[in-house]
């Protein structure tokens, strides 16, 4: 038996919350997260925990899917941010940008999530989600979640509601009409048909609470964690909500977002183009696909250009 040192065991279990109901995730979520971690360990320099064992608990022996992984010392970057000097904050933002740049340089030819077969080979399979369902909802059917060979196939699946938890009751006529309208727009879109943006690995919760840093050397990243729901999408669709510490002044966040965006643009020139105003219409269509089955008419203001959280979008002077 191998001695793996200090090990962290994470169990995903059914949870019951008063007034909300139960939470359940798709059976593809944990295998995909494990495959993503192993892929990153094998093919990148991004620091991630090593996975030793995992089990999807199909026999319900544990009561939830689980995995045993390497315990990595470190604290979330948002915990220590206020203790850092301005120079240390700048260095950490540069390190964060370098990690994200490496993600943007991972390219595969399909849209979906990573998996690993019995021979250890990685492949793109159905897209997973980190979302948990609520009472009365059913998880997405993996057979309708990809992988997708084109942006059009993917956006139609998004607009159809195939990739998210859904209520057991049918959609209202209003939602069905809106969904059909968006799908027809996708099918007739020259922007979608002609889009040649590469498919990159998207950490959907890439944020400071999921970036661990060394307490003694806080400008060095010890691990990037929480890869649930990671997926390959067109670069213009990779838009994690980058969260700063609570109470962080807006002018400082804008400054450091510019530090991050300029560094990523240096490392990955194509990234800047993916979030220029030239892609506003394409990203707006992607947003409408996401909202096609959940927002009522007038609830979303589509006249405003899509906002890119990591860059702020406004920093790109096109």
TrEMBL record:
Gene3D superfamilies: 3.90.1200.10. Transmembrane segments: none annotated. Residues 26-236 form the Aminoglycoside phosphotransferase domain. This is Aminoglycoside phosphotransferase domain-containing protein. It comes from Guyanagaster necrorhizus. The lineage of its organism: Eukaryota, Fungi, Dikarya, Basidiomycota, Agaricomycotina.
